[in-house]
Amino acid sequence: MKRQIYDCSEGCPVESTLQIIAGKWKAVILYYLIQNDICHFGQLQRQLKNCSRRMLALQLKELEDDNIIEKTIYPVMPPKTDYKLTDFGRALIPVINAMETWGTYYNNVVSKKNTEHESGSK
Fold it and tell me: Which is deepest, 23, 44, 48, 53, by most CB within 10 Å?
């Protein structure tokens, strides 16, 4: 299935950003690449436990096609593949870091509400 490419040249800049990082796993992949600089396919697969091998490969391919990440294949047996952010992809670091900050805030709010709900229901 070919993904839809949107013409965002005159559109909303948020839509343009989402076009690149949309997908359940892309932002998470970018997060791990920011944390580790370089990741192997197997390393990413272990981090994204609920992501199938096929879906991970597809998401990586789309990020590579969009010039966000760079793939290096080493001629060894078994083959070794590394992924890292391109210079263009590094421009997304503040976006992913902001998502991490907000996600941490959200998780703390939800955790606090759950704790209050549990202690109030006793």
Answer: 44
CB 83 within 8 A of CB 39: yes
Name residue 98's amino acid: A
Does 38 reside within a domain?
yes
Q: What is the pTM of this model?
A: 0.81
Instruction: Single out the residue of 52, 87, 49 nearest to residue 67, CA to CA.
Output: 87
3-class SS of residue 70: strand
Tens of pLDDT, residues 50-82: 999 999 999 999 999 999 999 999 999 988 999
Assigned domain for 56 exists: yes
Closest CA to 90 of 39, 38, 34: 34
